[in-house]
Amino acid sequence: MVGRWKYLHKANLDSHLNAYRNARNLDVAISWASSARQDGKSDKRNSHQRRLPKAAPPEINTKLSASITKIRSAKKFDQLYQVVQSSIQSVFGVGLLMVYDTSLRIGAHLKVEPSKVYLQSGALEGAKEYFRLAGLAQNLYPGGALEIQAFPLLKFELSASEIENFLCTMRRSMNPIIPISQSSVF
Fold first, then answer.
1. Using CA atoms in the order 38, 80, 8, 3, what is the torsion angle rounded to 10 degrees?
2. Stretch 138-165: mean pLDDT, rounded?
3. Which pLDDT does position 183 carry in this prediction?
4. Is the separation of the CB atoms in 17 and 105 below 8 Å?
5. What pLDDT, on a 0 to 100 scale, did the predictor assign at position 41?
6. What is the DSSP letter of 122?
7. Residue 67: partners with Cβ closer than 8 Å, 6 or more residues away
8. How large is the average pLDDT for residues 43-47?
9. What ranges in 49-171 are assigned the alpha helix state H?
């Protein structure tokens, strides 16, 4: 299943984050992330934020720009996530997925990557399936984060952000009948 994820989704994730890594400066990366832009070439919004109200991006940009000193000083993803969350969580339409995705995009520009797997929306659903199939008990909740070691079948092949993407994009592909420990899907 990891091979299938790599074939179907890894290049898209890499391309998306590379656009932010290569943004001209932090102001540009914040502007793009505020609008949930898929890349630097178009104004196309990432599908994760398709329901974000049209009035939200300018407000998000204003709030993040006001926090640029704190954003710039974040040396760890957890710190960046907290700054982004406290800056934009009050914006109508912003939820945990927008907070994570915005942090990931800005973090790509700053070369600050997550060391934990953040759980929201599809990634949370995928984590529930993963742990159910693996026969492992975990306390999972929206907005939670797990150490990469919690994913013994994935931790050697994927980074934390890749595991998050894997859980989200592959959640419906996990076989609900055969436990992972008895199969070779991973």
1. 170
2. 93
3. 42
4. yes
5. 76
6. H
7. 83, 84, 86, 87
8. 76
9. 56-66, 68-73, 77-88, 96-110, 121-134, 160-170
Question: Strand ranges (DSSP E) for the chain?
Answer: 116-118, 145-147
Cα 84 from Cα 129, distance rounded (Å): 28
**Residue position matching structure tokens 């000083």:** 73
Distance between CA atoms of residues 176 and 132, nearest Å: 9
What distance in Å separates the CA atoms of residue 20 and residue 29, rounded to the nearest whole number?
6
8 A C-beta contact, residue 84 and residue 103 = yes
CA distances from 13 to 17, 19, 134 (A): 6, 10, 26
Residue 33 and residue 19: Cα distance in Å, rounded? 11
Structure tokens at 124: 């949370």
Distances, alpha carbon 126 to alpha carbons 24, 39, 122, 133, 145, in Å: 34, 25, 6, 10, 13
- The dihedrals phi and psi of 97, each to the nearest 5 degrees, come to -65, -40
Integer angstrom CA distances of residue 176 from 73, 83, 101, 131, 132: 43, 38, 28, 11, 9
pTM for the whole structure: 0.90
Q: How far is CA 56 from CA 11, 18, 44, in A?
A: 28, 24, 15
* Residue 117, helix vs strand vs coil: strand
